Amino acid sequence: MKIKIERTEKQPKPNKQQKKSTIKVGTHKKLTLVLWFVLIGSVSFGIYKNFTAIDRHTVHEKEVIETKIVDTNRIESFVTAFATDYYTWQQDQAAIDRRNEQLKNYLTEELQQLNLEMVRSDIPTSATVQRVQIWGVMQADDKEYDVLFSVEQQITEDKKETTITSTYSVQVYMDKNRNLVITKNPTMDSQPKKSTYQPKSLESDGTVDARLTTELNSFLETFFKLYPTATEKELAYYVSNDALPVIQKNYVFAELVNPIYSKKDKQIFASITVKYLNQDTKTTHLAQYELILKKQDNWKIIR
Question: What DSSP letter does each residue of 67-107 carry, written as one string?
Answer without folding.
Answer: PPP--THHHHHHHHHHHHHHT-B-SSHHHHHHHHHHHTTTB
